[in-house]
Amino acid sequence: MSYGGTQLAFCIPNGLNHSRVETFSTKEPETLEWIESIPQGSVLWDVGANVGLYSCFAAKARHCRVIAFEPSVFNLELLARNIFLNRLTDEIVIVSLPLFEHLLESTLRLTTTSWGGALSAFGVTHGFDGCEIDKVFEFRTLGMPMDDAVSRLGLPPPDYVKLDVDGIEHMILRGGREVLAGVRGVSVEINDGFEMQAAECRRLLEQAGLRLVSKRHSELMRSNAAFNRTFNQVWAR
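Above: the chain's sequence. Below: its structure in token form.
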């Protein structure tokens, strides 16, 4: 497939991934526009990378150094395959640990075992809307704060952060005060119906010296009853 002159190739082992590729330009056009605005060669953390559509686009279109955080064992294979298909092995690093507000061992709960699935929850039992998730699979793993990912793992601090983890965005931001102090911009997906999370994300991002630039969602999201209160917020310094 091609978007904005950038050629991309993705594995499509099921209907879900076919849908992800088919709606690449229409599901979250605001996210693609944000990525296109990132300066060439920036370090981007893609937190909740799923199968890597945005990671691959950022690495190819903007020559970003991408750190792709994705803890789902069912998504990791496709993430790695998509990176390889696009010849981006040297540009994208996979980190299979979830980010959280502090270092701990806890449970990753998944709502599906399908390749390309989303709506999982680490360290909590609620989902993107603050309600209990319908778990179908789970396993124990380690979670760590953004700040520890730099100080303990030696990852490059991000210039930009894309954050979409379906419910614990505020907890991840709590664990990244040092990282957030140095970023130029953040794109974070927030459900306005989850009022506590929305307010906490705003507080933490403003505390980091960032300002809200835009808050948008596509017609596809607007027409979906489950997600019509979910927006991608762009924050900048």
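Residues 65 and 91 are 5 Å apart (CA to CA).
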